[in-house]
Write a structure and sequence with these properties.
The chain is an all-alpha fold. Helices cover about 70% and strands about 0% of the residues. The radius of gyration is 23 Å and the shape is globular.
């Protein structure tokens, strides 16, 4: 079920009213109803994939209990590996099986060896990358003695399947979300108003900004060979995609956080105006915060972090970000994107001792420009398109005809400026969260929104 669909417009108020008016006196019934609503929400795409969520929940629930009860360290480690092997095995099969088989065949083909292998018509379950990482962190934290396992399977299953953040995050830690599920909740008018504001703002970013910019971006990336001949269209498409993916993904996160507030549960902030970052490390403290912090705590630090010398630190950064790119999908384009960011972080750390002062505005523009260029392989359909786009910068633009009017271009610039202006105000401490803002955004949504119920970009990951 999409947040920007008619079905969700009916689903959310219905769940909200039953949750607070009928079940507010009974926590167990509230959690059971939240779980049921979550399963309906997820099963709306394909009910068969509910079995994967159930299996992941069962395995990690009992693994968590097993790790806690085991008295021998080797037994704890064995149970932890069972959890990790199961989760990564399921994720690897559905997300990477065909990718690795095809890559293996192509690698041998480069040496003149012809190999054949059958690949499967595998459908990627929506949100599998998110809830897999969420349940894995649960067992890892128990193994590290940072968390006590819950004895309630209902609470744990609700934690895994909680519908506001199930499909595309934020990736919640059990230490933060589980205690909120296991304790009584009371309705808060203030929290509900904050939630409504976030939902409307998130819908505006997704439907009015992201989806409209997507029309321009899709036209460019759908025919790179032709349109990359126009420097104007290339530059605007690169910039617009930076804001499309930001508004699409942060819009989802805002809606998820706002929806959760309606049920008295707080989710972590997932975006913090990342395009105002003055460094690449700051960018990753502001962009997809739940994933970047997960990669830091469960991959970068276990690899050694910055504790084993500079060369090892640079390598750890590179490996972490390259694997972070692979997490996004089975494509060399994603690996290249992650590797680029790993290289940016390593180079930045290498030159950090020089402490060369630059004005903040120049730092921000530089980081935004480099991040935007790095989005090219992320968005391109294949490596050939990526190469063609970068090669076009060194050619004379032929002025190829654009598949859009200057009015569409102006609308894209205007929508982008609105997002930048609001983020700038919030960056400086001016937060507009009142009914006037909600009504104004709702009116803009009606007139500017692209209401074709387009899927969110990160649903494919």
């Amino acid at each position: 079920m999409l947040f920007n669909s008619v079905e969700f417009l009916i689903f959310l108020p219905t769940v909200f009213l039953i949750y607070w008016l009928v079940l507010r006196q009974n926590l167990r019934l509230q959690n059971g109803f939240l779980l049921l609503a979550s399963l309906v929400f997820y099963g709306w795409w394909d009910w068969r994939f509910l079995s994967l969520i159930f299996a992941s929940s069962v395995v990690d629930y009992f693994c968590g209990l097993g790790i806690d009860r085991a008295r021998v360290q080797n037994n704890k480690r064995l149970i932890l590996f069972t959890s990790i092997f199961f989760n990564l095995g399921v994720l690897g099969f559905f997300k990477y099986y065909n990718f690795f088989i095809d890559s293996w065949i192509q690698a041998w083909a480069n040496f003149g060896v012809v190999m054949t292998a059958s690949t499967l018509n595998i459908v990627l379950p929506v949100g599998i990358s998110f809830y897999t990482f969420q349940t894995m962190s649960y067992t890892i934290d128990i193994y590290r003695n940072q968390l006590q396992p819950t004895r309630s399977f209902l609470s744990f299953f609700t934690f895994v399947a909680y519908f506001p953040q199930l499909v595309a995050g934020p990736i919640e830690r059990a230490a933060v979300l589980l205690p909120q599920i296991t304790k009584r909740r009371s309705f808060s008018y203030t929290s509900a108003i904050q939630g409504i504001h976030l939902i409307v703002w998130g819908l505006f970013k997704k439907v009015a900004v992201g989806d409209n910019l997507g029309v321009i971006v899709d036209g460019f990336y759908g025919n790179v060979g032709l349109y990359s001949q126009s420097h104007l269209y290339t530059i605007f498409s690169i910039i617009f995609y930076s804001f499309q993916i930001y508004c699409d993904f942060s819009g989802y996160s805002d809606i998820a956080i706002g929806t959760s507030k309606l049920f008295g549960i707080d989710l972590n902030t997932n975006f913090n105006r990342p395009y105002f970052s003055q460094s690449f490390s700051e960018f990753w403290r502001r962009w997809h915060i739940s994933l970047s912090s997960w990669l830091r705590d469960y991959l970068y630090i276990p690899l050694g972090g910055n504790r084993k010398g500079q060369a090892r630190t640079y390598g750890n950064l590179f490996i972490t970000m390259a694997l972070g790119g692979l997490w996004h999908g089975a494509s060399f384009n994603f690996i290249i994107w992650g590797a680029l960011h790993g290289a940016f972080l390593a180079i930045e750390r290498m030159f950090k001792p020089l402490k060369i002062p630059f004005p903040a505005i120049l730092n921000r523009l530089f980081v935004f420009a480099v991040v935007s260029l790095a989005w090219i392989p992320f968005r391109s359909l294949n490596l050939t398109d990526t190469v063609n786009i970068f090669a076009s910068f060194f050619k004379n633009g032929s002025g190829a005809s654009l598949p859009l009017s200057y009015f569409d271009l102006a609308e894209g610039v205007l929508l982008t400026c609105i997002v930048v202006a609001v983020d700038l105000c919030e960056e400086r401490g001016l937060v507009f969260k009142n009914w006037f803002t909600v009504v104004l955004l709702a009116v803009l949504l009606i007139f500017l929104g692209n209401w074709r119920a387009l899927s969110f970009i990160y649903f494919q990951f």
